Amino acid sequence: MKREDLFPVVHEDGSLLVVHKPADLVCHPTKGDEYSSLISRVRLYLGEASEGQMINRLDRETSGIVMIAKDQETARSLRLQWEARTVLKSYRAIVYGWPKEDAFEVNAALGKDESSAVAIKDCVRTDGHASLTRFRVIEKFERGGEPFAYLEAMPETGRKHQIRIHLQHIGHPIVGDKLYGLDEQYYLDLVYGRLSNEQRNNLLLPHHALHAHSVTLNYQEKTTTFTSHEEPWFTEFRIVTEMCE
Hints:
Blueprint: E1 9-12, E2 16-21, H1 38-46, E3 53-54, E4 63-69, H2 72-83, E5 88-96, E6 103-107, E7 110-112, E8 122-124, E9 132-143, E10 146-155, H3 162-169, H4 185-191, H5 197-203, E11 210-219, E12 222-227, H6 232-239, E13 242-244
Parallel strand pairs: 4-11
Antiparallel strand pairs: 1-2, 2-4, 3-4, 5-10, 5-11, 6-9, 7-8, 9-10, 9-13, 11-12
């Protein structure tokens, strides 16, 4: 794999590398292949001697913006902003159904789903960690007579799987989500390598339709926005449709 093929570069300077993480690529290695994770590809891109530090992370199937600081000072500045919740994050999602309101928020605490067979699965629970996501409907459409919505999601907190769980909680799960979508059995079958063609067809998309579209923060003493666009499999699902008002 050539250096320029490791990932699309959104921005690069002497202190910061901003990339588009492809869907179906983990951020940290789970096996030995040097191309199997984003951070290993970053090391190939920057060189083994680099001090590249990943500032934010995305789930394996979530595509979009990931920031890598090239030095300690930049890493500290960006992480402090994340911890202070001053970073504005905008995601794009395709969900089942049409939300009742064009702009709404979900304020629901999250914690471990103790009833699930999946160890990493969380859920809405009153004794969980406070979690808030704001949503905006960008467009409504139909595909094969079934309603879908294209949303902007803006998480105020940064809990694990937050957007996915909040959307499932209000009855509008993300299309293609194997864990919080149709049935968690899809996720288990994927992990054990037994996901059938029928199940893949039922999911409608090869990956869950969640994309980290933009990040806005203070960089080099000015407010800066980094943006990455959805991948073709995401946009084609939305474009080949009947649009609705």
